[in-house]
Amino acid sequence: MQYMTMPPGQHRLPPLPYAYNALEPVISERALRIHHDKHHKAYVDGLNKAEINLVKARQNNDYAYIKYWENQLSFNGSGHILHSIFWTIMAPIGTGGQPGPQTTNQIVGYFGTYDAFKEQFETAAEKVEASGWGILIWQPAWRRLEILQCEKHQNLTQWGGIPILVCDVWEHAYYLDYQNKRKEYINAWWDLVNWHEVEKRLLFAMGGQMPLMLVHNGRVNFR
Description:
Elements: H1 29-60, H2 66-88, H3 101-111, H4 114-126, E1 132-139, E2 144-151, E3 162-168, H5 171-178, H6 182-189, H7 195-206
Antiparallel strand pairs: 1-2, 1-3
Helix pairs in contact: 1-2, 1-5, 4-6
């Protein structure tokens, strides 16, 4: 895995790894276009703006708005990271395969069964208060998986945890297609999970790495 240091204010919106209509009928083309092109781009723009203003604050030794810009850094940075991962761990129906050997071993080893893991993940995502995410992380501190229920993008996190499977349950992720039926959306979303990518992410995470866009055909990921 090759990494490049990201200069402040230079984050870019990653392209989708599939066509806008590729996730239908679970996620419609219209919903995906708005989610990726509008909402995710807003997080990237907000992150860049926060970083640039913090550079200016350091240059001018002026921290009058530090609380605001640090909040923007956390909110938009987390939104950019989680959305970038979200796109990669989905694939058209029928192409995502099954949980890989390491993923299966880790799930069964900690959660007991795949069904127990799935039920906990679904319920965590469904019961997020207001907007947020259901997240499966690799926790390096105790060398195992854990499921987090994340409010907004950054609340209720667990330091050091590396996301490997994320389900977006902000209303902009599903309202056009499912209205207020979050549970129905989550149940359908499993058909899109790209377990091949989840396995890769787990292996990277176990080595302490978290690429946003996984490298394919020799291309270097960008953040």
